[in-house]
Amino acid sequence: MLLLPVLQARAQQEQKWAEEDTIFPRGEKIENDHFNGAAWVSFLIRGDSTNQTSVGNVTFEPGARTNWHSHPAGQIILATGGVGYYQEKGSPRRVLRKGDAVKCPPNVPHWHGASPDQAFVQIAITGREHGPTEWLRPVSEEEYHR
């Protein structure tokens, strides 16, 4: 089939873009059970006792995403490249593109990540003054593709 090589070439091009054409470094590969697929984070600001807000540049490979999770102080996501998804529990999934911004309400379960065929890069701004992120179950394939 001719379509498969075209899709593979597009995914390789998007991965190359995600590695070379970003504002901040891709950072370290995330090695935990809170993500499905490969993702990398570069912490731009780490929360401390003076200011508990952390800021991270997160790069998701095509198809990669977080588990469902919530933040007691909320979170802000700034899309800086590629195409991604964001979904709050009980709401439809949103498509995110470069320049989109999302304000995740406190304690609302949500997930975010890349679309199936394109990488996604985001800045995640997370306050920790009300406690750490609460990680929940993985996003099912049905939920991801719905």
Give the gist of this structure.
The protein has helices at residues 3-20, 141-145, and strands at 28-29, 35-36, 39-45, 53-60, 65-66, 69-70, 75-88, 94-97, 101-104, 110-114, 120-127, 134-135. The protein is an alpha+beta fold.
Structural summary, described in words:
Helices cover 16% and strands 41% of the residues. It has 146 residues and is an alpha+beta fold. The chain has one domain (3-145): Jelly Rolls. The strands form 3 sheets. Strands 1, 3, 4, 7, 8, 9, 10 and 11 form an 8-stranded antiparallel sheet that branches. A two-stranded antiparallel ribbon has the order 2-5. A hairpin with a 7-residue loop joins strand 3 (39-45) and strand 4. The longest helix is centred in the N-terminal third of the chain and has 18 residues, at 3-20. The protein is globular. The model has no long low-confidence stretch (mean pLDDT 89).
Annotate the secondary structure layout.
Layout: H1 3-20, E1 28-29, E2 35-36, E3 39-45, E4 53-60, E5 65-66, E6 69-70, E7 75-88, E8 94-97, E9 101-104, E10 110-114, E11 120-127, E12 134-135, H2 141-145
Antiparallel strand pairs: 1-3, 2-5, 3-4, 4-11, 6-12, 7-8, 7-9, 7-10, 7-11
Fill in the keyword field for this structure:
RmlC-like_jellyroll; alpha+beta; Jelly Rolls; Cupin domain protein; about 150 residues; 12 strands; HNL-like_cupin; RmlC_Cupin_sf; eight-stranded antiparallel β-sheet
